[in-house]
Write a structure and sequence with these properties.
This protein has 2 domains: 216 residues, Rossmann fold (3-Layer(aba) Sandwich), CATH 3.40.50; 129 residues, Rossmann fold, CATH 3.40.50. Strands 6, 7, 8, 9, 10, 11, 12, 13 and 14 form a 9-stranded mixed β-sheet that branches. The protein has a 5-stranded parallel β-sheet with strand order 2-1-3-4-5. It is of the alpha/beta class. Helices cover 41% and strands 23% of the residues. The protein is globular and about 60 Å long. The protein starts with a helix and ends in a 10-residue tail after the last strand. The chain binds P-hydroxybenzoic acid. P-hydroxybenzoic acid (PHB) binds next to loops.
């Protein structure tokens, strides 16, 4: 009897050892600005994330428990919320972070605790450069990646002298630096540049006067959120658009707020890794599903959320279910999503993706994005990253 039981137990143990893992419950911490100037960006990311879980979640045996924390746009608040998710909630993985400043503040906590973080917006180059980590994987973009290709493209359009403007914080500097480096390498000249106090500049007039007097043939800027709305409107009301065409990083005329800019945004040419008018089956399906769910056209932020959750699902499909295995699997993810084919660069954990140059034009039901060029997939330089 004893022997039989023993044998049966041994048999059961062997059986269990070879049985695939049962469905896992994965705890996901979402770190997003649900309040403050970037709240609408955070909401789009959250809605995109939830949509991908609904669409692809069933492909994996896992279930996902979401714990949402509001980072505001504050590095200390972001860090406190990350600590809570890691230490108190004991999440398996985190996703989110909109501001480069918040990402900079939480990086060491993420790296030290070995809890993987899927970056769903913040573009600071160093997060996948000198401060890279095997636990930080980016499913959004890097500041350099989005702006660098515009340097050559604008020069190829015959523009040789440019004036630049951006808010005076990490993202503003990195976006302009990448553009300026590529534009000058192509043969162009930056005839002047200015950084405006972040979240404090209401009147861009003095800067626009300088740009007008600079001898530039075009202006290239980065602004996002509320600042993008007021900048584009003021640029138009200064009457500059015809003689001094406005170019920029595509966040300037994001589909999230372009209709708040109205006709002032017409004719502005920018570059980004996603626009809702990309002509592909994957994108059309996504736009239809997101619009049905939320009543809004998805922005690049919605796609960051969607692709972040999709990456998590792809990782769990390989059997990953805890912090270490999820981190390792995330670094190997690749799929074709709404923005096109994308993969994670094994050297940096940043993604490799196409960049679209687009013009904001009047459409049948408001402003829309006319794609002027699809630039080859961009892979950032390693920038001192050693993944360990
Ligand atoms: C950033 O801080 O990295 C950032 C914020 C908003 C954007 C893009 C980048 O639209």
């Amino acid at each position: 009897m004893k022997t039989t039981l023993k044998t049966a137990l041994a048999g059961l143990a062997t059986c269990l050892a070879f049985t695939p893992a049962l469905a896992e419950d994965i705890k996901v911490g979402l770190l997003l600005p649900y309040s403050g100037v970037y709240a609408s960006l955070g909401q789009d990311i959250d809605d995109g994330f939830a949509l991908a879980l609904e669409t692809y979640g069933a492909e994996t045996g896992a279930t996902f428990d979401l714990i949402r924390e509001d980072t505001e746009v504050s590095p200390p608040v972001g860090l406190a919320k990350t600590r809570k998710l890691v230490l108190q909630d004991k999440v398996d993985v985190m996703a989110g972070i909109v501001s480069s400043g918040v990402l900079g503040a939480v990086r060491d906590m993420v790296h030290g605790s070995k809890v993987p973080l899927i970056v769903a917006n913040a573009g600071n180059d160093e997060a996948t450069g000198e401060s890279c980590s095997p636990y930080v994987v980016r499913l959004s973009f890097s500041n350099g990646q989005v702006n660098r290709p515009m340097g050559q493209w604008m020069f190829d359009q015959g523009i040789t002298k440019v004036y630049t403007l951006a808010p005076d914080y990490a993202a503003g500097h990195q976006m302009i630096d990448a553009f300026a480096e590529a534009f000058t390498a192509a043969g162009g000249e930056i005839v002047g540049q200015e950084y405006t106090p972040f979240r404090k500049t209401q009147d861009f007039g003095p800067y626009l006067t300088k740009a007008q007097a600079s001898g530039a043939e075009a202006v290239f800027v980065f602004y996002a959120g509320g600042e993008a709305i007021s900048f584009v409107k003021q640029y138009d009301s200064f009457g500059l658009k015809t003689d001094l065409p406005l170019y920029g990083s595509g966040f300037l005329t994001s589909s999230l707020y372009v209709n708040a800019q109205g006709p002032a945004a017409e004719g502005v040419i920018t570059a980004l890794h996603y626009v809702p008018t990309i002509d592909s089956v994957e994108n059309k399906d996504f736009v239809a599903a997101f619009t049905e769910k939320t009543g809004r056209i998805p922005s690049e932020y919605a796609v960051h959320g969607y692709d972040s959750a999709r990456a998590l699902i792809e990782a769990t499909k390989t059997g990953a279910s805890d912090r270490e295995t999820i981190a390792a699997a995330l670094g190997k993810v690749s799929f074709t999503g709404p923005r096109g084919p994308l993969s994670i660069d094994p050297a940096t954990n940043n993604l490799i993706q196409l960049i679209y140059v687009y013009e904001t034009v009047a459409g049948e039901t408001g402003l829309t994005q006319k794609v002027l060029a699809t630039l080859p997939a961009q892979q950032d330089p390693v920038n001192g990253c050693v993944l360990k």
